[in-house]
Design goal:
Thrombin, subunit H, 8 strands, PilZ domain-containing protein
Length: 187
């Protein structure tokens, strides 16, 4: 089950060999194929070749690309996320700021805002759900700058002490969403 470690040069060689193999499979001749002559192409066409990497000791010297760890692929979310864009107003230091929701669940919300939010800080939230505004409290779990966009931040907020009534409000909102909005896509 474990993947072998591969160097960048190994990847380049494999890509080059794959290009040559593809050209051969399509019946094309190229300078890279050299003096090879077509024999009976029906026997070699679409043949699959396997290449093995070097021993681990040699790889440590060359600087390798390590395999991706499986544990990073595991979904940690316990509640379904709904990708609904709506207005969220948060209060920070007596100032009200407007943000846009990216996704929302029974435990929290991901927002896009113009400012970075202080981690582990509790905010007063007002979220517009359909045609009504509801108040919640939320703790900032993370806040990070959006890549290649100097003026936007993504922040994750965890709802704090939701009452059964507030959970019902959120559940009713999720039930009212269109199928398109309900699709749980990674974001």
């Amino acid at each position: 089950d474990s993947l072998e470690l591969i160097t960048k040069s190994d990847l380049k060689k494999m890509a080059n060999e794959a290009d040559i193999a593809l050209a051969e499979a399509k019946g094309k001749e190229s300078a890279a194929l050299g003096a090879r002559r077509k024999k009976d192409s029906s026997k070699v066409k679409n043949r699959v070749c396997v290449y093995y990497g070097k021993a681990t000791d040699e790889l440590e010297k060359e600087g390798v690309i390590k395999p991706f760890e499986k544990k990073l692929l595991q979904e940690r979310r316990k509640f379904e996320r709904f990708y609904a864009s709506t207005v969220l107003i948060y209060k920070e230091n007596s100032d009200s700021n407007v943000a846009q929701t990216i996704n929302i669940s029974l435990v929290g919300v991901k927002i896009s805002s113009e400012s970075e939010l202080p981690r582990d800080h509790t905010l007063d939230l007002m979220i517009v759900l359909k045609d009504k505004a509801y108040q919640f409290k939320g703790d900032v779990v993370y806040s990070e700058k959006v890549e290649k966009n100097f003026f936007r931040y993504y922040s994750g907020l965890r709802f704090k002490n939701l009452s059964p009534e507030e959970k019902t409000i959120l559940g009713d909102y999720f039930s009212s969403l269109d199928l398109e909005e309900r699709l749980s896509l990674p974001h």
